[in-house]
C-alpha cells in the first residue's frame, strides 16, 4: 500500500507491483502511471461525462464486472452526476474532472467507458460514434478499408470524422456534433450502417447477429443510444497485453496492411502524444461540431 498526495488530495494506492497484463508484464503501478502522466490529454475526453467502469482487478483472466453506480468507498471529493434511467429513478455515476479523481479511478483497475453526451445535457449527444467490429478472419485491416468509405460519406454530410483503435480488434469513428437528441443520432448512424452494408455487402454488415459477421465488419451504430457507452480515448483495455484505445491519423488508416500496425500499448502512448499531439483534439473543438444532416 502506498499513500500519496495528488493536487492536495490524499490517495491510497494498492498492489502497485501486481502484474495486470501478463503478456506485456505490465504492473498496476505502470497502469496508474499511464493515466497520471497523460492526464492532460485523457481528462478532456472524460470531462463532464458519467463514467462506467469495466473492472478487472486480477487482470483480464480474472473476474470482470461492469459497474455504473458510484463504487463503495468513493471519496467525497470525487464529483458525481445524476444519470437518467428510463422507467426508474435516476442514478448517480462518477465523473473524472481532475487528476486526483483520475488516479483514484485508475487504482480500481478499470476500463473507462462514456456515453456520447455530457452531464450538462443528458441524452443530447455531442458526438456520433461508429464501432467497427471485425468478424474473424477479418481484422482491423478490413476495418480501415470500411472506415475510409464511411469517412467519405460523413464528410459529404458535413461532419468531421476522427478515428481511434478500439484497443481490442477494431476501430471507432467519431464525429463532433451540435448537441442532438440521442435517438436522432442513433437513427442517422443506423442509416449509414445500412447504406454501407448495401453498397459493400462483401465487407460490411449492419445486423448484430453473429452468424452474419464472419469475414465482415459489423458497423455497430447502437452505442449512440443514450443508455450505451463506448471505450474512452486512451483507456487501457482488459487484454493480455496492455493495449490502449489510441487515436490514429487517416494516413495510418490508409496505410494499414497488417493488424500489428494499429496495435498500441501503454508504452507507445507518451511518444505518440509528444510527436503528434492529441489526434482526437478536433473532437473537443466546439467549432468543429456540426448538426446532423436534415432529411
UniProtKB/TrEMBL annotation:
InterPro entries named in the record: LigD_pol_dom (IPR014145), NHEJ_LigD (IPR052171)
Gene3D superfamilies: DNA primase, PRIM domain (3.90.920.10)
Example GO molecular function: ligase activity
Sequence ranges assigned to domain DNA ligase D polymerase in this UniProt record: 27-279
Keyword entries, A-Z: Ligase
Protein name: ATP-dependent DNA ligase
Organism: Streptomyces spiramenti
Upper lineage: Bacteria, Bacillati, Actinomycetota, Actinomycetes, Kitasatosporales
